[in-house]
Amino acid sequence: MMNYKICDPSGNITILVTDEVSKEKRIEVADELLKLEPTGQQVGFVSKGDGTCDLVIDMAGEEFCGNAMLSGATLYKQSHSDTDIVRIKMSGAKDVIDVTVLLDGEQYIATAQMPMPDMYEPRVMTFLGKEYKTFLVRFDSMVHLVMLDRLNKDDIKPAIRQWNDELKCGALGIMDYDEDTSVLIPAVLSNNGSFFCFESSCASGTTAVAIYLAEKYKSEIEKEIKEPGGTLKINAKPGGYVVLTNTVRISE
Asked: Based on the structure, what is the number of domains in the chain?
């Protein structure tokens, strides 16, 4: 029986495997766990720090995942109660990231500066002969498209598969963001294209939205982004700087 913990960062149920799993087996194991735990939305693999960090977290598809990072830091905090800053080496991130984790009643508040994007730009995407204006944000192995034109919900799953192939990324998010209401509905294709879901929250996708807003207004942005599973807080500045805060619960 594989050992794992279930974490809840604003509904984005994250399964963190604490047993050692070879890189070659991770996608297979992740797919099996997502079937075993039907509320799960993503799987990360946790290992001990290597001297430069407290914890190493790898996603099955080697992409960056903000909520998995915050969840892993919270898991570490749970067993190291005197530690408020947890150093995480996260797949898809070039540098070790400091995550501040504070206990708040029965939940934890986790805050971190998100990785700087490799690039971002307006991008027109085509699906079924129709053009859609988007704002593309590319991280090391994860791409998010902030939709500036609305894509019908029924079209999101086939469109994300097509666009993932076109953009040649291991994981792709479509961020349906309504600026008037500050509501974000994230959809993500991960595990190298084997797993799709509408996520209850998405930290890296929220980061992409924050980058879009800071670039659009050319100013610092502080905002609460409302997502199906909860509210994430962002502080963003032009140039790709984003600090994100989310709440995390750990299942016993």
From this structure: 2
CATH of the domain at 126: 3.10.310
- Cα dist from 20 to 14, 24, 40, 251, whole Å: 17, 12, 20, 21
Distant-in-sequence, close-in-space partners of 191: CB < 8 Å, separation ≥ 6: 27, 30, 31, 43, 60, 61, 171
Residue pLDDT, tens place only, 102-154 = 999 999 999 999 999 999 999 999 999 999 999 999 998 899 999 999 999 99
Judge whether 43 lies within some domain: yes
Rounded to two decimals, the pTM is: 0.95
Domain's final residue, options 114, 141, 174 = 114
Same domain, 218 and 142: yes
**Residues 14-47: tens digit of each pLDDT:** 999 999 999 999 999 999 999 999 999 999 999 9
Q: What DSSP string runs through 207-235? A: HHHHHHHHHHHTS-EEEEEEETTEEEEEE
What's the domain range around 225? 119-244
